[in-house]
Amino acid sequence: MQAQYAAFIGSVTQGDLPTEGMSALYVEMAPGNEVFRVVDIALKATEAHPGAQIVEREYGMFEVHSKNQSDVLEAGDVVLNRLGLTVNDRIRPQVVSTQVITRVDPYQAQLINRFRRGSMLVPGQTMLVLECSPAAYINYAVNEAEKKASINLIHVSSVGRFGRMWLAGSEAEIVTARDAAIRALESLEGIAA
């Protein structure tokens, strides 16, 4: 987990708090209630710590993390084995939309700042809004964007039909972040939704 991403997740999670440098596993599934059984399986079999367990109308999502990447990889393997699946059975992420808004107006910045949980959007910055499906993949995309570009993380939403992220910075850094996020999502194998 990159610094801003870990700090953001720590501000919204109701479970164990992650910190920079930890590894995380996000699993999203339908029906949503399956998440309770699967979290139980992952926690009993590994040393990973639970950060989130969310059930909404259509999907359930959970996150586990650890200082040791091997714990997170083991949690993923245990869950897949217990469900009779492989990593190739996952749904391949799709970028649903991207928007780059240059020189954000002060009034729009104020509207966005009322909703955000991360950094503040400063008028005049360039903003990236990126959506993907399934929603949990947005966590991977934003972390990869932060690795490649000097940006400010404004907000991430990874529950529901679509995952969304809002990033801000210079136009060049936002283009770099957008490209890194899209490359990361497109690099993942899986089945078409």
Helix content: 25-40%
Domain unit count: 2
Number of helices: 6
At the fold tier of CATH, the topology name of the largest domain is Alpha-Beta Plaits
Secondary structure class reads: alpha+beta
Descriptors:
globular; 193 residues; Alpha-Beta Plaits; 39% helix; 7 strands; 2 domains
Topology:
Elements: H1 3-12, E1 23-29, H2 34-45, E2 49-55, E3 60-66, H3 69-83, E4 94-101, H4 106-115, E5 126-133, H5 137-148, E6 152-157, E7 163-169, H6 171-186
Antiparallel strand pairs: 1-3, 2-3, 4-5, 5-7, 6-7
Give a verbal description of the structure.
The chain has two domains: 3-89, 2-Layer Sandwich (Alpha-Beta Plaits), CATH 3.30.70; 94-186, 2-Layer Sandwich (Alpha-Beta Plaits). 39% of the residues lie in helices and 26% in strands. It has six helices and seven strands. The protein has helices spanning 3-12, 34-45, 69-83, 106-115, 137-148, 171-186; strands at residues 23-29, 49-55, 60-66, 94-101, 126-133, 152-157, 163-169. β6 (152-157) and β7 (163-169) form a beta hairpin.
